[in-house]
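ok new one. same drill as before - structure tokens go in, u give me an amino acid for every spot. 201 of them this time. try not to just spam alanines like last time pls lmao
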């Protein structure tokens, strides 16, 4: 029997690792029970996911089961594979208004490496019934680049969120007026009356 966290091997009769306070498993390469406190982790950007996602919206990579050990280090519960997932399928499950948008119709409303920010913006668009699509940075070259540590924004395009041209103004106004985001510079004339100005700075 093995401890899924410290990976120590135990003799017959043991069922629990007291050091890690976790039940032992039979096979470290195929942990088929849920481990206390486990979540999904992106093997590349180390973003944690706790809501059943299978892919990282930022990196587009398959998430890996993981826990945090006593030293606050991530421990993988399965071998990390740097495999891309088809995000469209997953996004369709998460957001009602996620849809394919023709490139000729698409206008970018956000370009960012910040996975949290991307998700917030998609939540916001979805809640306000605006159709949108997530566009991954260009393909194989950029994924290889980031795995090998090349992270220069010059060499690596950002993931984007696009909306249809007809929704552009509504989307930008929405994002500009969101108190949660605060990053957007929108031309004055696009921003309507704003009765909840909170200027914390
Ligand atoms: Zn242990
Ligand atoms: Zn990631």
């Amino acid at each position: 029997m093995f401890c899924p966290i410290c990976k120590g091997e135990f003799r017959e009769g043991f069922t629990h690792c007291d050091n890690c306070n976790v039940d032992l498993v039979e096979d470290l390469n195929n942990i088929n029970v849920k481990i206390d406190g486990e979540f999904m982790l992106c093997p590349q950007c180390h973003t944690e996911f706790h809501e059943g996602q299978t892919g990282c919206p930022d990196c587009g990579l398959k998430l890996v089961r993981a826990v945090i050990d006593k030293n606050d280090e991530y421990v993988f519960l399965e071998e990390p594979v740097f495999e891309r997932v088809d995000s469209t399928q997953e996004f369709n499950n998460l957001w009602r208004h996620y849809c394919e948008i023709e490139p000729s119709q698409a206008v970018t409303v956000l370009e960012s490496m910040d996975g949290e920010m991307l998700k917030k913006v998609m939540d916001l668009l979805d809640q306000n019934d605006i159709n949108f699509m997530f566009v991954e940075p260009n393909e194989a070259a950029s994924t290889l680049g980031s795995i090998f540590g090349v992270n220069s924004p010059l060499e690596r395009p950002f993931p984007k969120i696009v909306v249809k041209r007809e929704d552009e103004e509504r989307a930008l106004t929405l994002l500009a007026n969101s108190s949660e985001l605060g990053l957007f510079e929108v031309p004055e004339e696009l921003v309507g009356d704003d009765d909840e100005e909170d200027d914390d700075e």
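The chain has a mean pLDDT of 82. and btw The first strand starts at residue 16 and ends at 17.
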